[in-house]
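hi! just following up on the protien thing from before. the input was this:
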Amino acid sequence: MRAARGVKGGLPVRPLGRTGLAVSRLGLGLAAVGRPGYITLGRARDLPPARTPEALAARTAALCDAAWASGVRYFDAARSYGRAEEFLARWLTRRGIAAGAVVVGSKWGYRYTAGWTIDAAVHEEKELSLARFTQQLGETRALLGDHLDLYQIHSATAESGCLEDERLLAALVAARRSGACRALGLSLSGPTSDRALALALAARIDGEPVFDAVQATVNLLEPSLLPLLAAAHAAGLGVIAKEVHANGRLADANDRPGDAGLVAALRALAADAGVAIADLALAWVVGQPQIDVALSGAATTAQLAGHVRAAALALDPDTSAALARFAEAPAAYWATRARLPWT
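and the predicted 3d structure came back as:
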């Protein structure tokens, strides 16, 4: 097993399914700091006023330094996260962190189109084709090289057809066999994620399972995939939880009028536990046994420090049960997410 080495007294490490990789229970996702615009409530107060590439590269490096010191050994990027892969590669090189000392995951399928602006008409352009995979694998490898461990289809859906495209699936498996990446995965998004995951579990090339890991939205408001993720985990897939704070809805920064009751109720529970709302929400996700690693989308080192503490927080059964009651219908959750602004 290629083990990501933890630090004494740091975050626990566990296998990422059958990938042969080992990950810390908390990972750092770079979507919020690799580009100037993202879908996160309260983001304006978290980032520097001038979101230049230099400023966000410095913020990324500071977050990666803090994560490394805290025992985080899984780092997540994507081709569409602006310059996140570049910033991560730069940090790995400057710190002299060898391949194998951390586990790095990235994703292909979206192309960043915002031109380093916050108010672009289109921020990402999606194409889950063989041509796009071939192109973006080369681009990712050019930046991350042998640090690339897990390469994932970005927001794979049943409707896209990518999970039944034999030529594409064969190319994915060929990339893994050649050592271009060590494991293959997919991330999921939207109310039909269950259908996509079922197709991924069934995908085979020459009898060989195509996918080794799945990254899915799991949070207090959208826990609907947890039973299927448990089945995926039992089948040997590594499970990564993303959007654990529901793009800021599960944080004190949420000032949406429609979420006023939600925030008030969460504040009361968080106060009883002596933590922030965001930390309570993350602790609930980490407490799900099928989750191997939960991603922090921290934009500040203070947020990250809270997330590290939350990853070690054991919730009592009454608190866990109370939090489970915040679940929304998946269609309603995803409709709300689609209306959140890029900030």
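The first strand starts at residue 2 and ends at 3.
The chain has one domain: 2-7+21-339.
cheers
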